[in-house]
Design brief:
- By secondary structure, the protein is an alpha/beta fold.
- It has a single domain, classed as TIM Barrel (Alpha-Beta Barrel).
- Helices cover 45% and strands 15% of the residues.
- An 8-stranded parallel β-barrel has the order 1-2-3-4-5-6-7-8, surrounded by 7 helices.
- The longest helix is centred in the last third of the chain and has 18 residues.
- The structure holds 2-phosphoglycolic acid.
Amino acid sequence: MRDTRATDRQQGLEVLDMKNLIAGNWKMNGTMGEAIKLANSIVDAIQSDAQLLEKNDFLVCPPFHHIVPVEAELTMAVNIGGQDCSPFDAGAYTGDISATMLKDVNCSYVILGHSERRSYYSESNMLIKQKAQMANEQGLTAIICVGETETEREAGQEQDVVATQMLESLPEGATADNTVIAYEPVWAIGTGKVATIEDITAMHDFIRAKLAEKLEGADKVRILYGGSVKPANAEEIFAVANVNGALIGGASLKAEDFVGIAKAS
Ligand code: PGA
């Protein structure tokens, strides 16, 4: 039953591709009770506006131990994913969660290479590539995060940094069906600072062009923007041609804001 539901979600995505992906990264927040309440509120808010599903796919990525109870509250309209996975499949890897385990509990996505993991846990592009490979082998879509620091942008290195992160993190066999790119300037995450529309346009165009050098069907890969996205700034961000959704941290913890962002698309 659960497997079928996960498969339906994946198939639904393929048919309805290039809807905006509205992805919530709950990070390390909340109690079990709060997670379940948030899931319920998100489902209620989506169901109260049927048109939202015509333009958007939804995804929530709770902490690992909240995945099963949260998934039980979600309808098919909302996908569930992990915030990370192991580069290994199974065995003596204390603290790790494998892509197989995520798939087993109906996840269809996994966020990989978030800047918090790159900086606090020194994750390299090579490690992220190995994780993405495992994710893809299990049928999970890897959301590969890239983004420059403020110092790198001030030095005019943002495109070089993003291209290197992305091209070195993409696994062999990456396709538009199993890969999403999330551009998140590090200085915009959790700070309230948002990149200008010109900067977002330039970077998303650049990412699309670089993807085309690496994989077929690059025009179908969803490129999300992330970094202080809120209902108030979502409309102009979604109006950018190569923005195909958002990866949302802080605002994804309030159903009203999370669904409010989708309403702007
Ligand atoms: P934020 O986080 O929306 O709180 O800036 C985005 C993210 O870390 O993915």
